[in-house]
Design goal:
This protein has about 600 residues and is mainly beta. Helix content is about 5%, strand content about 50%. The strands form 9 sheets. Strands 1-8-7-6-5-4-3-2 form an 8-stranded mixed beta sheet, with helices on one face. The protein has a 7-stranded mixed beta sheet with strand order 30-26-27-28-29-31-32, with no helix packed on it.
Length: about 600
């Protein structure tokens, strides 16, 4: 059935598809469904084809009844008076996406595009990474992992470039000692864009070497002009979480600790990497504009030594350690986003109370520069039962169950957060992502037993807060709809639609359910409605490369960026592991992915 759907989509891309009837039924369009009794495709006829409008935004194949047996030659239509125009905001064909579409059903019957705006042009670019840049990272069956990907104009030539940090897991972690502080295999690779939408590896041109060691695995990054020289810089939250054992710090060291890494401009077109002490298990990084106009780069981690967040400030192009930030032992922290000429004096951070309760903490800076935790939002407040246990785990584990927004959950973590402005000069909104597993509707008091590994259902929900009277207040209807089962940990909050209002864009998960399989590597845009809420745009409007164009069908992710700086955003698909399941024409086999990046170039504004 999936093959049929792909074939039908390919016909849509040719602007017309035809059907012929063997009865006097009339094609109808009712309740968002376009019903075609028969559908001719090449030398085959399909029956009972239903096209469906989804959320009034997208036309998709809903069902195909079957295949007409024994068909040979041309089919003569017996339709007499069939004429209808269907208006659709967006329509995806797999190869492209169209907006403001008018589809006409007429004699034949034929369904054809009579008017539309094409969003992506016919040119697509595949970028291969020469093996020598990845062989220093990958080993055996262990591929090069790519989590932190950045799109910046690093040489200020008017064309955006790609900066990728690859790192590899330990090939045999069980053989390592409990306290292992050895290196992480990694390499920073810069792809410079040339004229004609071509790219070449230009790491040596920018940094003087083909191999750049950041001494760890990068988890998150933030882009900015940290030394105010007009060139973009990148700060990486680094650690050594590469499969080695986690152990508490000792005289032998902290196994997961690494230095912070900054890709910083020298102001003359060249760059360097600053590796900054102290070492820590860095998991999050954000920037903050101070009251003096400085840009502070603030790192934090679920550290073990009760130390404050680590911050650096560039003065005269030299990083200086900044003190005074609060203790933030968490995987995520976000500073308040501010309008121009203002400074950020608030932040939120995930906090753990009593070693089990996950809360969001609000911190405020006073006039003396001291930070205080002024409020906490407890997601466990509605819970009236205590714990669940897993009977299928190698080690018996217990989790606290909690209830939020009417849903029972366990395994709560807050790995990501961001902040947006509700309007260009509007209020700041903090957004956190609740990562958890869903529980049944009915739970008993005391201990509930679950089959964690077989019945777990991941849930990634965005929750929006405003600050009112120095308190965190949930905004219940900030998102009109969420695809909570396909969100990933990777999302950004910025203006992605060019209207001056901040949006949220999340990369969808690249695994698990059938629905996700159809949307691997797709992104979901939550567009700012300019009325105090974000509207979900169906992710299926995004075109997706075929397996022949981009063979990696398991580890595929995407960014929504303007790569050629023409004012129209493009889609950059990338493989987040260089060794993945690849379709070789017959079956899925594990091998190195031949294509690292695949770009759809935007032709017209999507919104």
């Amino acid at each position: 059935m999936g093959m049929y759907i792909m074939k039908l989509f390919s016909i849509l891309g040719a602007f017309m598809f035809c059907s012929a009837a063997y009865s006097y039924e009339i094609a109808t369009y009712e309740n968002g469904l376009l019903n075609l009794p028969t559908f001719k495709l090449g030398q085959q006829v399909y029956t009972d084809v239903v096209l469906e409008l989804v959320d009034n935004d997208l036309l998709r194949i809903k069902s195909i009844g079957g295949v007409k047996k024994g068909f040979k030659g041309e089919v003569v239509s017996r339709y007499d008076k069939i004429s209808k125009v269907v208006n659709i905001d967006y329509m995806a064909t797999g190869e492209n996406t169209y907006k403001n579409v008018e589809l006409q059903v007429s004699k034949g019957p034929k369904l054809k595009i009579i008017n539309s705006i094409e969003l992506f042009d016919g040119e697509r670019t595949a970028i291969n990474t020469p093996e020598k840049y990845l062989s220093v990272v990958a080993e055996g069956d262990i591929g090069a992992t790519l989590i932190t990907l950045s799109v910046i104009d690093i040489n200020l030539d008017g064309m955006n470039d790609i900066v990728a940090h690859y790192w590899g897991d330990q090939p045999d972690p069980d053989s390592l000692p409990d306290i292992y502080t050895g290196p992480v295999k990694n390499n920073l690779v810069i792809y410079l864009q040339d004229e004609g939408r071509k790219f070449h590896v230009g790491t040596k041109e920018v940094l003087g070497s083909d191999y750049i060691d950041l001494e760890g695995a990068s988890r998150k990054r933030v882009i900015g002009d940290f030394n105010l020289d007009g060139y973009p810089d990148i700060a990486y939250a680094m650690n050594k979480e590469d499969g080695r054992k986690l152990a508490r710090p000792s005289a032998e060291g902290e196994p997961w600790a690494a230095k912070a890494a900054i890709l910083i401009s020298n102001g003359d077109g060249s760059y360097r990497v600053d590796l900054l002490s102290p070492e820590n298990f860095y998991h999050s990084v954000d920037t903050r504009i101070t009251s003096e106009g400085y840009i502070d780069i603030v790192f934090n981690s679920p550290n073990f030594d009760n130390s404050p967040a680590v911050a650096y400030r560039y003065i005269n192009n030299k990083a200086e350690l900044v003190k005074g930030y609060p203790y933030l032992s968490s995987a995520s922290n976000t500073f308040k986003k501010v309008v121009q000429n203002d400074y950020s004096d608030q932040l939120i951070s995930e906090m753990t109370l009593d070693d089990q309760y996950q809360v969001v903490g609000l911190f405020q800076e006073d006039d003396a520069g001291n930070w205080e935790n002024i409020d906490q939002f407890d997601f466990n407040a509605d819970s009236d039962y205590t714990k669940i246990t897993c009977d299928e785990c190698d080690v018996v584990e217990e989790w606290r169950a909690y209830r939020f927004n009417g849903v029972n959950r366990y395994g709560l973590a807050i790995f990501e957060s961001c902040s947006i402005l509700s309007a260009p000069d509007g209020e700041n909104i903090f957004i956190v992502q609740l990562s958890s597993y869903l529980l049944p509707e009915q739970l008993t008091d005391g201990v509930n037993v679950i089959d964690h590994w077989h019945n777990q259902r991941e849930d990634e929900e965005f929750v929006a807060f405003r600050v009112k009277d120095s308190r965190l207040e949930v905004i219940p209807d900030f998102f009109d709809k969420q695809d909570r089962d396909i969100h990933s940990y990777w999302f950004s909050c910025e203006d992605k639609t060019g209207d001056g209002y901040d949006d949220l864009v999340t990369q969808n998960r690249a695994y698990s359910t059938d629905y996700e399989y159809q949307n691997r590597g797709a992104i979901t845009i939550y567009k700012n409605n300019q009325n105090g809420s974000l509207k979900r745009i169906d992710p299926r409007i995004m075109p997706k490369p075929t397996l022949s164009e981009f063979p990696s069908n398991f580890y595929r992710r995407a960014l929504y960026e303007d790569l050629d700086n023409d004012g129209i955003r493009d889609i950059l698909y990338f493989a987040d592991n260089s060794r993945a399941w690849v379709f070789d024409g017959n079956q899925n086999v594990q091998q190195h992915t031949p294509v690292s990046f695949f770009i759809y170039w935007g032709k017209n504004q999507m919104f």
